[in-house]
Specification:
The structure holds two protein chains of two kinds. Chain A is mostly beta strands. Chain A is built from no helices and eleven strands. The chains are: A mainly beta, B mainly beta.
């Protein structure tokens, strides 16, 4: 069993839809949680970085962490075609350590 | 642009050969991480350096080695290459100076093809 499991997708939604991306993890030592966006096999780009359980909002993006359930989510509101990319969840046991990634969810937002 | 640079962008070589991938971290970042991304294994951590010293090792093969130089750039050496080593290799860097910004910023990657 992988330490981090991510909904595999692919996911295709119409423009303007709300998108929900999810990951579960098994290692309770994970304390830091991130979402990265990756376009066409380019370098991952950090979207959200959270430490505690709860919600964190940044523009159209909301990251949610539930440590008791070992579950994290990323919500994208008013999705745009430019949001079409692969989304990777990542986590680490502390901020100075390596990241463990989910397998990624490929999202396509149709105009 | 993350500020992390990697060279070369693409590398095509033959089995059994040796290659060197180079990474320059963001200005001021002390730590460098190497990751491998393949279709079947996803994005996996290989090795981390901090201020010239090895800090952590992941799923790095014995045929692979890395180092970080005094100017903080890093090189990943891959030897006795096999077809299965074909992948995207990413370098990431982070500050780790205790200034509260430990986010890892990724470079554009080096695409390695082993024929």
């Amino acid at each position: 069993q992988k330490e981090v499991e991510q909904d595999p997708g692919p996911l295709s939604v119409p423009e303007g839809a709300i998108v929900s991306l999810n990951c579960t993890y098994s290692n309770s030592a994970f304390q830091y949680f991130m979402w990265y966006r990756q376009y066409s096999r380019k370098g991952p780009e950090l979207l959200m970085y959270t430490y505690s359980s709860g919600n964190k909002e940044d523009g159209r993006f909301t990251a949610q962490v539930d440590k008791s359930s070992k579950y994290i989510s990323l919500f994208i509101r008013d999705s745009q075609p430019s949001d079409s990319a692969t989304y990777l969840c990542a986590m680490s046991v502390n901020s100075a350590r390596q990241l463990t990634f989910g397998s990624g969810t490929q999202l396509t937002v149709l105009p | 642009d993350s500020g992390v640079t990697q060279t070369p962008k693409h590398l095509i070589t033959a089995t059994g050969q040796r290659v060197t991938l180079r990474c320059s971290p963001r200005s001021g970042d002390l730590s460098v991480y190497w990751y491998q991304q393949s279709l079947d294994q996803g994005l996996q951590f290989l090795i981390q350096y901090y201020n010239g010293e090895e800090r952590a090792k992941g799923n790095i093969l014995e045929r692979f080695s890395a180092q970080q130089f005094p100017d903080l750039h890093s090189e990943l050496n891959l030897s006795s290459l096999e077809l299965g080593d074909s992948a995207l290799y990413f370098c990431a860097s982070s500050d780790l100076r205790g200034r509260g910004t430990d986010t890892q910023y990724f470079g554009p990657g080096t695409r390695l093809t082993v024929l």
